[in-house]
Every structure is written in structure tokens, then in C-alpha cells.
Amino acid sequence: MKTGSHQTIDAESALTIKNLSVDYGFTSNAVHALRNVSLTLHRGEVLGLAGESGCGKSTLVYAATRLLPPPGLITAGEVWVKGADGRQHNLLELSDRELRDHRWVDTAIVFQGALNSLNPVYKVGYQIKDAIKVHRPEWNAERRQSRAIELMDMVGISHDRLDAYPHQLSGGMRQRVMIAMALALEPKVLIMDEPTTALDVVMQRQIVQQIMQLREKLGFAVIFITHDISLLIEIADRIAIMYAGEIIEDGNAMELYHHARHPYTRGLIGSFPPLHGEKRELGGIPGSPPDLADLPKGCPFMSRCTYARAQCAQYNVHLEPTGIARDADNHQVACQLYVERKRESVPLPDPLVDE
Q1: DSSP labels for 35-104?
Q2: Which residues of the chain have pLDDT under 50?
Q3: How far apart (Å, rounded) are the C-alpha atoms in residues 267 and 65?
Q4: 1-106+187-291 domain in CATH 2.40.40.10?
Q5: pLDDT value at residue 133
Q6: Residue 280 confidence (pLDDT)
Q7: Would you list the domain boundaries of the chain?
Q8: DSSP 8-state class, residue 351
């Protein structure tokens, strides 16, 4: 860890990502999956991370937790998390042994496919208790069993299921077991990578409600990754929108939903049916995301944007406050339109005017 660097990190943050960049590949043809991404997760906060498939959502959290598989390569950045010792630690500079000590204790992750994440040849009770045994070697077998039963109660599964193998459980139960494992050592940060994607709508609702109840009870912070903004509106305190390996909008969940500022965010929200109120015609976003191995100069959304102009080709994508009076200071957007509005008094196009 860099000496004194922890002093620049917000004391209220549970996880701070600073200028994180990731490539897939090692040659001039490398795919630039993340480019200088910065993100702060506050204590007890639910942060939704949304965007189209391939925008870098999963890459971001896998890189931040050092679970990125080859040929993924972290080329720059820092990831700070507050440890059990009360100090901030840069996860990217920890040794393998130090990193193992932090996993499950400070940060935990629930993957999208529970059946692929659980070991098929071990009973789920053994797998829950094994994680506890590694990090709490002073606990005896009776105490580990008691904790496993407590965790199953927390996620609403009968105790006798501790003796079941993963294939003997339903998809919803397996996902609950993964949540139980992730919470076994009471981490301060829980990362959920599309945990409800493979579940039916009823089970999705149950899982999400249970996560929120556990968050209220235990006080951990959550990064919830999904492509479904309509789901995030109901559970997230804040939403960050990703596009082509960068965060292009970040703000309070309801504010962002009702007053999206980036043209891409507006298109993304318009692609989902509203949860309440009158029916409306669904829209879409023309074109396809750019090739991350050959990104255009300037704004990567320019070729798909209805409001693109010549200045967009020179725009250096970075988040800054919208400059709109009704927006909170923490509602940020990365768009040339707002730069021109603030610095040159150029009015926004009519569809984006919402002050």
C-alpha cells in the first residue's frame, strides 16, 4: 500500500475505485474493456450498475476484486477498501496471502450462475462452513454449524438443506445459499453480479426483497449489477450507467430515472416498460456499441447519438455535475452537450431540457 495514500480516501466510503483501466490481450489489438473508471460506494449504500451487455459492468467488479481471468490485465488504477483493522487498503497492491485474508471478510461476491459457483461434489453445508473455517480457525465445529444454521435462517432455507448437494436445490435456493456464503463473515461490501438473471420473475422478487431486508439488518453496502434499470429503480439508492468501458452518468436512482441527462441513459430507460403508470411505446437505441479494440476518438456514443455534433469527436469523456439547477451536485454526466451549456451557454436540445 502506498504510504499515506489512504488519507485521500473518503472516510465514509466502503469501496473506492480510482482510474481503473483493464485490457483484454497484450498486443496492439488489445480490447480496452475499462478506461479510467472511478467509482465510490458509500457505507450502507445500494449502488446499481447498469448498461448493455459488453459495456464492462462485470469486468469492473472482477478487476476490482482481483478475480479477473486471463487474458484480462489491469493496466492502471487503485481499489481501496476499509479493512477490519479500520484502515484503507489498496486491493491491487496486496500480496496473494493478504488478499485471501480480505476476501469474504471485507468484500464478498455473489456470481450470476450459482450452480456453476457451488462445488457439485460437496454438500452446501460443508461449503458454507469451509469458508468460515479458513477465516475463523479458532471456531470449533459446533460453532461453525451454529453459524451455518443461522445463515440458512437468514436466507429463508430449512436447516436440513445443509445436507443437500447443489443439484438437489432449486435455482432460487442455490442463489440463496450463495448469498448465505457471501454473508457468512459479515463483509462490509457485497457485490452481486446479475444474481437474478436466470430466475423467474416471482423468484427474482423474493431474492431482491431478501437482499434488501438483510442490508437493513446487517448494514453492508451493495453493488448490484444488471442490465435491467427497472429493477434498480426499486432497490438502488444510486445508479451508475456504463457505456463502452466508461461510466457516463451517475446519480440518485429516482432522479436519474425521471431526469436522465445522458442521451444513452434516456435511450436505455426508454427500452424498458414502465413499472407503474400509463403504458407508453418502447423506444430503442440505433446502431451497435463500438469495437473496444478500435475505439473512435472522442465520445464513444457519438455514432449512435441523435444530438452528436462536431465537438463530440474531441470530447474527453469524464463525469462532472450537470450544471442544471434542479439536479443534486452528485448527479454527474459525461456529455459534451452539458460542457457547452455550462461554458458557452449553448442551450440543450429540446428533448433533454427538463429543468
Answers
A1: EEEEEEEETT-EEEEE-STTSSHHHHHHHHTT-PPTTEEEEEEEEEEE-TTS-EEEGGGS-HHHHHHHBT
A2: 1-8
A3: 31
A4: no
A5: 94
A6: 65
A7: 1-106+187-291, 115-186
A8: G
